[in-house]
Fold each of these.
Amino acid sequence: MKYILSFLFIFFSFLINAQDSLKSAPKTYKIGIQHTPPFVTQNPDGTYDGLSIKSWNLVNESLDYNFKYQEYKTLKALLNAVESGEVDFSINPITVTDSRMERLDFSQPYFISHTGIAKRKESQVINILKNLWSWEFISAILALLGVIFIFGFLVWLFERKKNAEEFGGSKGKGLMEGFWWSAVTMTTVGYGDKSPRTTGGRIIGLIWMFMAIIIISSLTASIASSLTVKSISGEIKGITDLSRFKVATVNSSSAAELLDQYGIDSEKLVTEEEGIALLNNKEIDVLVYDEPILRYEIDKLNLGNSIEVLEKTLKKDYYSYSFPKNSDLVDQIDPALVRMLKRMEWENLIKEYK
């Protein structure tokens, strides 16, 4: 009996010590991430870097959490992992949207960005040559020729008999002479080889001289407008204008939500790198995604000479850490995150990555 009691005492002491040891061991938090340059990148040695990683390092200086990163290949997989509690939270640059707030909780925003539009750079010469064959240019030229012909015809009516040496001859020749005089008068070249001599002809000429100043100005503006390089950037003044182009974006992104909200058909891609490749190969017209990520990827791939991000943006984005719904970690991390945003180190990091 004595030995049994001793064994039970040792066994229960072991259990108690084991429980105390488990209680004292700090929890290791799983942080979900996805490769999203320049916010989340990976070094050759396998360690992670980027603006979001550095933001978390600054935040964790006061929290002192044990943690490990768990990487996901797509944004959709990452969001699902956060929502299901597969990871404790994510520090990826997740844009806060109404639909996401129904699925997740978010921290104080740590970065303000915009939804941008990337497109191929267009050749000015090629666009001008293409516009020479546009209906706008052709219609402006035809209108100009029509007005010149009308006044040439009116002068010919008055001059064809009394000024036959200049406007006479066959009907076709006379009309051509009238057309020539009208064109020379309108352009103020003034060769002096032809001039109306009849009273009616001179009245028409006087009217045409004054009208030509107004008409040539408006028609010149019309022709110049039709020749102006029409680029995608000039045609996009709002999100609804995207319906005229072949658009792509990243699946499950806030940009995809925005396009769907406005009924803009778009090709949903796995990554922004895929979209940039399609854009460079002229398989799509525009790529809509987070502006800083687009600019970083284009610069990294040395495609700045062929692809540009428009100054025009579609909306403002707020990047935050994301958590499973009703997570207690939000109240723990938020104060540390707010303190981090006030630090000079964070300001310097922002400048470095812009």
Note: The CA atoms of residues 30 and 86 lie 8 Å apart.
Amino acid sequence: MGTRSEPYEAPAIQTFATELVAWRMEADLTQTALAETLGYTPQWISQIESSKSVSSKTFAENLDTFFKTNGLFQRLWKRIIDTRHQAILPPGFTEYVEREVEASQVRIYQLTLVHGLLQTESYIRAVVGHEQDPDTAERLVAERLKRQEVLTRKDAPTAWFTLDEASLRREIADPEIMREQLAHLLAMTERPNISIDIVPMSAKYYSGLTGSFTILSFLDAPDVVYGEIAGQGMLITDPRTVASFAVRYNSLRGDALRVEESRTLINSVMEEYG
């Protein structure tokens, strides 16, 4: 986990930062003074205290030795490592997932990949395993599979998925995995609460090409929109902005094939994988 322009939201990282500030202030030290004492740069101290960088084990040990904390910072560092899979989640995503389980309706447009709620275990592993250590990848796989239960539980929301054809054709894994994934999409369309339609390549330019997004609707709360760009998540609650996304979703669905035609296209692409 490297330096970020925005703070990590992971509680363990934020707690480390808060404790470092508290101990430094108690010792009446500036960031520069602490950095010079421990042999680091003021910029490094600043990044740690703002939760934009993650401590190394050595840095944690040095803090414990200097402040005589009886191992506090080493314990906090271990907590960061034990929960590091949470730290790589985009800002805003944790809050989104909390709301996702409460939604009565879900409208999703996905441009480049099969949406996470529709991914098979093998497909998930191919996606989240990219540049992740095995332990972190497995935790992310397990969490995504658990999250998918929102679609199959007793009181599951009504879910509309609109996917660009490119998401079916992007070979992010071996042909066998892609074929399994597309077969899974067909199986999910059999569920009464799920609708999947595809925007074909023949649509050329349409409004969905500007990016993926999700609209959550609730029985007793206003709709919200979630989207990601360059690894940064954004949960939108402004009513006017949310309404504009609803209009966009209805518009791009006009470019999509009907459900049965979409099933035919999914099956056709699946057969191309052998």
Note: The chain has a mean pLDDT of 90.
Amino acid sequence: MLPFQSLTEPFEAETYLKKWLEVERKAAAKGFTWASLYENYEDNQYMSDSLLVVPQSLITEVENASRAVNDIFGKTYEQLLNDQSLIHKLGISVFLWDLLLAERKTAFSYFSRYDFIASAQGLKVIEANTDTPVGLVEAAIAQDVLCQEHHRENPNARMTANIKQAWNQVIRDYGISSGDTLYFTSADWHDEDKQTVQYLMSLYPQQAKYVPLEEIVVGEEDVKTPDGERIDFLYRLYPLEYFLEEKSGTGELIGERFIVHVQNEKVKIINPPSALLMQSKAVMALIWEKKDEWYTRSEQAAIEKYFLPTFFTAHPLHDSYVKKPVLGREGGGIRIVSNGRVLEEDVDYYQDQTAVFQQYFPMPDQTIDTWDGPYTGKLLIGSHVIHGEPSGLFFRVGELITGNLSMFAAYTVQR
């Protein structure tokens, strides 16, 4: 089954680049503007124009696994609320504990992405982004453009409708009236986050406004826009734990004040605070640790089938494991060890965080076309779950550690 066939033409550099630039232009016109990324003082290709041909059986299996994994996370959230003493294992700042453990009438997350490795040895979830998932614009817009270019069916076509349904559920759960405004925010300098927010905002059915994160005014009594409009409801594509470091021009930690306002429900945020609680990779270790205590037999079977053994120390895994900072992002701080040998390691980020240790499960090879010719990297499958419903896949091909420069590749169903 793996690697997948790729719909490509014989590679010729000038022809390839001309065609790629045309696809980039079409995708940019629809809101996907980061087909290349400027990093390390050069432009890096992010979007491949290859189209992977994937068996329907695998797509169905990933969707079934996504439902099962999301249900396990939901059950785990309930158990954490029942035994709040376990929060110290999650590696999250003490300042956030009361906020994260408050009882809520909302889903623990409305927008999530679970990352899977698919191989001949099975399908395994390696981590979850339940707080601030990206890859939505790639899976919705770029995916559709590339499928049209290759004259093939787009399996992610339902994503837009599912996001609209999620917003309707948010409106009900949060009690947002037709006269209320939902404000959307991200770091204004970050094109990917900003365009993702703009895409989500375009599907919201009531009043909505974008306000740059840098311009939000956190006062003593409330949160406002630069124009003085009070923000009661806020969708934020910005990690909740990052707010703790936000300072005013005078050096005051206004992020802490913002968190207090959220705790006092002066501003209600989406995804809700519980999404950060479940974002911690230590949740994967708790799921494995409490497998026989918290879950039904069918849930235990799902854990054994889809979850890799994950622990708070490397000892049970001997000499083959992946060390992961519990709140790391974009592959930062990860170390991969196989048979006692370090295969790859990032030492630039998140070294001060608590870490968990997950059984090493190799990713399969996948070849795609790039500016420099065919490239063979490691394949990771992201599965977007929108308000509990699998809503579209997001394929990336990169190095052993799937980082920011791993390349996006669209997919279609094998005929």
Note: The mean pLDDT is 94.
